[in-house]
Structures are given as structure tokens and as C-alpha cells.
Amino acid sequence: MNRQHTVVDSPYGPLTLVATDGVLSGLYMTDQRHRPAEETFGEPDPRPFTEAVRQLDAYHAGELTAFDLPLRLAGTPFQRRVWDELRRVPYGETRTYGDLARALGAPQASRAVGLANGRNPVGIIVPCHRVIGASGGLTGYGGGLDRKRRLLAFESGNRAGALF
Question: Rounded to 5 degrees, what angle do the CA atoms 57, 61, 66 make?
């Protein structure tokens, strides 16, 4: 297993991109919960990330609403199902943990969905920020609630960030 990483700037602070065997396997924010140890990121090398950086730049510019990148996501089968379902949540929309659980055919699994959501290794691209609580309020986000609020406001067209 060959790993490389690079760090890119974003409106949400530096993002560390990690590739495993040339395929994007991680996108981590500073101070992110469940962020792996730096020594697991591999050697610095921007080459595997050209397309990911291009799409992230277009997303941050408001020109891209859906990412089209190959991903190598390491997780349990249930986590990977949750992450696949997250990729189906449209730009500018939100879903509750219960909505995702029902979409997965496991309506009683809201808590498990929440735990899997929190372990998403590729934030923003796999849009775990689009998941909210059953009451419609913001709930935990590995990158911090301020970033979640800002991402949701950005996607809703509310650049001031006053959505929630």
C-alpha cells in the first residue's frame, strides 16, 4: 500500500488530501475528530491530487455541485453503505440521520448512521455536512459545527452563514 498526501488551502482552512495507491482515500480538516495520525498520510506529493484539487476549487468557487472522483474508502460494509448514501444527498439539501437509515432499509439504525457519518474519511466530497438532526438543528460534525454551518450556508446560497 503506497500513500501520498498534500495540503491545500480552502475557505474552511487547510485540507489534507491522502491517496492510497494513487486513489483519494482521505480529506481531513485541521482539528478534525477521527483524523488519523500524520505519519499515516505517506510522503508529500501533489501529483495524485490534480483532479481532486481542480474539483475542490470549482466547488469552492460555486461552479461544481457534484464531485466525480474515484475514492478508496476504508470502512466496514455498513459505513461504506452510509457513505454511498451520503453521496446521493443533493447539493444544497439536507437529510436527517433517520432519513438516511430509512433509505438504507434500516429505519431503526439512526444512531449507527450517525456513527458511520462521523467516521467519513473524505469530508466535503462525501457530504456528511448535509446531515442534520431530526429536529432540523445542527448536530455534531467532525470538522466542527462552525464549518458545518458555513458549508450548509454556502451550498444554500446564504454566503453570510446565517442559515442555522
Answer: 70
81 & 152 share domain:
yes
Amino acid letter for position 156: S
Asked if 81 and 54 sit in the same domain, the reply is: no
Q: Which domain holds residue 140?
A: 77-156
Annotated catalytic residue, options 52, 100, 125, 128: 128
Domain count, the chain: 2
109 is catalytic: no
- pLDDT, tens digit only, all 164 positions of the chain: 899 999 999 999 999 999 999 999 999 998 888 889 999 999 999 999 999 999 999 999 999 999 999 999 999 999 999 999 999 999 999 999 999 999 999 999 999 999 999 999 999 999 999 998 887 777 777 676 788 889 999 999 865 444 44
